[in-house]
UniProtKB/TrEMBL annotation:
GO terms for cellular component: cytoplasm. PROSITE patterns: PG_MUTASE. This is Phosphoglycerate mutase. Coiled coil: none annotated. Gene3D superfamilies: Phosphoglycerate mutase-like. Substrate binds at R8, H9, G10, E11, T12, L13, F14, N15, R60. It comes from Streptococcus pantholopis. CDD domains: HP_PGM_like. InterPro entries: His_Pase_superF_clade-1 (IPR013078), His_PPase_superfam (IPR029033), PG/BPGM_mutase_AS (IPR001345), PGM_Phosphatase (IPR050275). PANTHER family: BROAD-SPECIFICITY PHOSPHATASE YOR283W-RELATED, HISTIDINE PHOSPHATASE FAMILY PROTEIN. GO terms for molecular function: phosphatase activity.
Length: 199
């Protein structure tokens, strides 16, 4: 069995200002750095050590990973980047399109702004995660720091309880156990608010 901890970055300036943040970047706030340190303390307290470390190429994810792991021997992967919102990047979050009842993503809305579609995001994120897990040795423990939209796109492709309404706060972690190439969601961990959900 292999274990994947898929984690969202800490709070950023754009999160605080409620601005659309995808491929563009903004720095972690002081609160975001504290959140990353709290996540690092959680892993340390549980005695969890990582054989492999990965991050989105975005600075906010890299800094989060460095604060969590206190290591620099990680790989940056473009495939772990956030949804590309194109020309809508940096705009107020209230400009996101209204979603129909039950709609989870943005469909093809952002293609018209030179961004990407839900299906494009889902494909690149899934391919990236599957590949990094396949390359890991048996029994490995993996930490990958990414973004809310990217993580949610992977989550929606997994076998998950239909009744569970997932919300990813900063530095939340999805723990997957991988057996015979099957990704099994085991836990949602919120180290900042000290909460855990088991599946």
């Amino acid at each position: 069995m292999k274990t994947l901890y898929l984690m969202r970055h800490g709070e950023t300036l754009f999160n605080q200002l409620q601005l659309i943040q995808g491929w563009c970047d903004s720095p972690l706030t002081e609160q975001g750095r504290i959140q990353a340190q709290q996540a690092g303390a959680y892993f340390e307290e549980k005695g969890i050590h990582f054989n492999y470390l990965y991050s989105s190429t975005s600075e906010r994810a890299c800094e989060t990973l460095e604060l969590v792991s206190k290591r620099s021997d990680y790989k940056r992967l473009k495939g772990l980047k956030e949804f590309n919102f194109g020309r809508m990047e940096g705009q107020p979050e209230y400009l996101h399109p209204n979603r129909r009842r039950g709609q989870k993503g943005h469909g093809e809305f952002y293609l018209q702004y030179d961004g990407e579609s839900d299906s494009q995001l889902e494909k690149r994120v899934k391919e990236t995660i599957v590949k990094l897990v396949e390359e890991a040795e048996a029994g490995a423990s993996i930490l990958a720091v990414s973004h809310a939209g990217a993580i949610m796109s992977f989550y929606r492709q997994s076998d998950v309880p239909a009744s569970f309404d997932l919300s990813l706060s900063n530095c939340s972690i999805l723990k997957y156990e991988i057996r015979e190439k099957q990704f099994i969601l085991a836990e949602l961990i919120d180290p900042v608010h000290q909460k855990q959900w088991f599946f």
